[in-house]
TrEMBL record:
<feature type="transmembrane region" description="Helical">
    <location>
        <begin position="114"/>
        <end position="141"/>
    </location>
</feature>
<dbReference type="InterPro" id="IPR004031">
    <property type="entry name" value="PMP22/EMP/MP20/Claudin"/>
</dbReference>
<protein>
    <recommendedName>
        <fullName>Claudin</fullName>
    </recommendedName>
</protein>
<dbReference type="GO" id="GO:0016323">
    <property type="term" value="C:basolateral plasma membrane"/>
</dbReference>
<keyword id="KW-0796">Tight junction</keyword>
<dbReference type="InterPro" id="IPR006187">
    <property type="entry name" value="Claudin"/>
</dbReference>
<dbReference type="InterPro" id="IPR017974">
    <property type="entry name" value="Claudin_CS"/>
</dbReference>
<keyword id="KW-1003">Cell membrane</keyword>
<keyword id="KW-0812">Transmembrane</keyword>
<dbReference type="GO" id="GO:0005923">
    <property type="term" value="C:bicellular tight junction"/>
</dbReference>
<feature type="transmembrane region" description="Helical">
    <location>
        <begin position="79"/>
        <end position="102"/>
    </location>
</feature>
<dbReference type="GO" id="GO:0016327">
    <property type="term" value="C:apicolateral plasma membrane"/>
</dbReference>
<keyword id="KW-1133">Transmembrane helix</keyword>
<comment type="similarity">
    <text>Belongs to the claudin family.</text>
</comment>
<keyword id="KW-0965">Cell junction</keyword>
<dbReference type="Pfam" id="PF00822">
    <property type="entry name" value="PMP22_Claudin"/>
</dbReference>
<dbReference type="GO" id="GO:0005198">
    <property type="term" value="F:structural molecule activity"/>
</dbReference>
Length: 225
């Protein structure tokens, strides 16, 4: 029962991580306007994402434009686009693999050992996905902070950390936590199965004892002769 609860918790965390990965990939709030110095035009917000940049005017109207060329992006955004697409695919594959390894799933049979290996695979993929999400989010955040404190960069070109980065960090932790739960469930199933096969039952031990007691040895028969 405890392992089934861990499976449900891991699946929920994996599903939340999958949705968060897709949301972070789509969201344009990776870089947002920094209102510092003379750049105090607060009724205009500039958002820069992996696929588009958006200009929001006075919290009423928003205009978005898709990037014309991939090569026009900075190197961190180019790499982040590819890594986040890969993370979205990996999170979906990990989630479907975890569903196949659940205790309530019948299409993969009733062998607990096989399902344990399936859950272990899903857990490892979830952890790898969390690391893949963590790399681009931290990379973009590092470049934003570096440019923010660089005196050579113009004030109008400086940006702040957007909401997508914070959601990305949370998503990475959720994915790693879900993967760790699945790995723990797989280890618990393997230990319980090995313990079950290593200890014989009381009935088998008692039956073998009576068989040995009833059948005398060859040496004892020779004594009676």
């Amino acid at each position: 029962m405890a392992t089934y609860a861990l499976q449900i918790a891991g699946l929920v965390l994996g599903g939340v991580g999958m949705v968060g990965t897709v949301a972070v990939t789509i969201m344009p709030q990776w870089r947002v306007s920094a209102f510092i110095g003379s750049n105090i035009v607060v009724f205009e917000n500039l958002w820069e994402g992996l696929w588009m940049n958006c200009m929001r005017h006075a919290n009423i109207r928003m205009q978005c434009k898709i990037y014309d060329s991939l090569l026009a992006l900075s190197p961190d955004l180019q790499a982040s686009r590819g890594l986040m697409c890969a993370a979205s695919v990996l999170s979906f594959l990990a989630f479907m693999t975890a569903v196949l390894g659940m205790k309530c799933t019948r299409c993969t049979g009733d062998d607990e050992k096989v399902k344990g290996y399936i859950l272990l695979t899903a857990g490892v993929v979830f952890i790898v996905t969390g690391l893949v999400v963590l790399i681009p989010v931290s990379w973009v955040a590092n470049s934003i902070i570096r440019d923010f404190y660089n005196p050579i960069v113009d004030i109008a070109q400086k940006r702040e950390l957007g909401e997508a980065l914070y959601i990305g960090w949370t998503t990475a932790l959720v994915l790693i936590a879900g993967g760790a739960l699945f790995c723990c469930v797989s280890c618990c199933n393997e230990k319980s199965s090995s313990y079950r096969y290593s200890i014989p039952s009381h009935r088998t031990t008692q039956k073998s004892y009576h068989m040995e007691k009833k059948s005398p040895s060859v040496y004892s028969k020779s004594q009676y002769v």
